[in-house]
Amino acid sequence: MKAAVVRAFGEPLVIEERPDPEPGPGQVLIRVEASGLCHTDIHAAHGDWPVKPRPPFVPGHEGVGVVERLGEGVERLAVGQRVAVPWLGSACGRCEHCLSGWETLCESQVNTGYGCDGGFAEKMLARADFAQAVPDGITPSDAAPLTCAGVTTYKALKVAGVRPSQLVAISGVGGLGHLAVQYAKIAGATVAAIDVTDEKLELASALGADLLIDARKDDPAEVLKRHGGAHAAIALAVNESAFVAAYGGLRRGGKLVMVALPAHGTIAVPIFDTVLNGTSVIGSIVGTRQDLAEVYRLHAAGRTRVIRQTRPLDSVNESIDEVLRAQIPARIVFEM
Ligand code: NAD
Ligand code: ZN
Ligand code: ZN
């Protein structure tokens, strides 16, 4: 099988021919049909974060495909079934986080395309319990971006507790942001979309954003404040100054939900303002299996649109460059 492999941080990925992996107990072998390129895969390939993957590894946590073989003891899935393999590759199922509906916080979790090989390949392994069934009626190339970009932003809006009539700022209308705009609209919010390219702002508008803020020309904090301030701001841009602007645009009682993960990212949170304004700053990491099932259900019901370009896996390095230059309409999906 063909796989795109990170051999060293910061180096181009190498397309390799590898033997098909063998499914162990509790695992399945999947023939990958489509695999989305998340900005997280780029952070992984660059070794951007304090906890690093160990090269050589295969990135990709939006892999969608068909179960080809079952490992010992797998009863939950059947050969021929379409599944997706999200970032949460496995969790222990026994700790306080797993037991309280927060499996995404499990300290024993293994992350797909980071702690084990991911979906940038023609075949991949998955833990059967964490491979998500993709409902009929969702194409593999639509299911792929929903598997991380979708579930992550759907969860971020849940964490923000967004209600109808609230003003929600979506900072960064990339792979994640284009779905965040749609979930915020579904939640009944008025949506302010912030980005730094005309194309992304046009896309946000086409997807229902009510207010467009071009951070090259205007200070998003000022514009949001002029509209009364945001009840919630979802920080999806890989840029610390965008976090600061989103924080600054909150109204009293507002919530900044941190989702993007810029390398070595920090922001200074002013204590006085945070206390007096009753501001919340919350981190949000992907979503649970249940969140992902809800994301698929919304899409199958025709309530979301996935904006993506499909490409062959061989284009992985050019595709990464284009994502870094923000030249992609929303998501790139590799079709195998
Ligand atoms: P992306 O590159 O597709 O999107 C980023 C967007 O931000 C682009 O549209 C870009 O034009 C815009 N942008 C850049 N500078 C900006 C600025 N100053 N103000 C406003 N917008 C600006 O990336 P993505 O795949 O959507 O991922 C975004 C981030 O989220 C990455 O850091 C990724 O690792 C992270 N992520 C986090 C989670 C999580 O669970 N917390 C899950 C998935 C991805
Ligand atoms: Zn656990
Ligand atoms: Zn991702």
List the helices and strands and how they pair.
Blueprint: E1 2-5, E2 14-17, E3 27-37, H1 39-46, E4 63-70, E5 82-85, E6 88-90, H2 96-99, E7 110-111, E8 123-127, E9 132-133, H3 140-160, E10 167-171, H4 175-186, E11 190-195, H5 198-206, E12 211-214, H6 220-226, E13 230-235, H7 240-248, E14 250-258, H8 271-277, E15 280-283, H9 289-300, E16 308-311, H10 316-324, E17 331-335
Parallel strand pairs: 10-11, 10-13, 11-12, 13-14, 14-15, 16-17
Antiparallel strand pairs: 1-2, 3-4, 3-8, 3-17, 4-5, 5-9, 6-7
The structure holds nicotinamide-adenine-dinucleotide and zinc ion (2 copies).
Commentary on this structure:
InterPro entries: ADH-like_C, ADH-like_N, ADH_Zn_CS, ER, GroES-like_sf, NAD(P)-bd_dom_sf. GO terms for molecular function: alcohol dehydrogenase (NAD+) activity; zinc ion binding. There is one protein chain. The chain is of the alpha/beta class. It has 2 domains: 2-145 and 306-335, Alpha-Beta Complex (Quinone Oxidoreductase, Chain A, domain 1), CATH 3.90.180.10; 151-283, NAD(P)-binding Rossmann-like Domain (Rossmann fold, 3-Layer(aba) Sandwich), CATH 3.40.50.720. It has helices at 39-46, 96-99, 140-160, 175-186, 198-206, 220-226, 240-248, 271-277, 289-300, 316-324; strands at residues 2-5, 14-17, 27-37, 63-70, 82-85, 88-90, 110-111, 123-127, 132-133, 167-171, 190-195, 211-214, 230-235, 250-258, 280-283, 308-311, 331-335. Strands 3, 4, 5, 8, 9, 16 and 17 form a 7-stranded mixed beta sheet that branches. A 6-stranded parallel beta sheet has the order 12-11-10-13-14-15, with helices on both faces. α10 (316-324) links the parallel β16 and β17 (331-335). α3 (140-160) crosses α4, α3 packs across α9 (289-300) and α6 runs parallel beside α7 (240-248). The protein is globular and about 60 Å long. 48% of the residues are buried. Residues 91-92, 94-95, 97-98, 106, 108 line the site of one zinc ion.
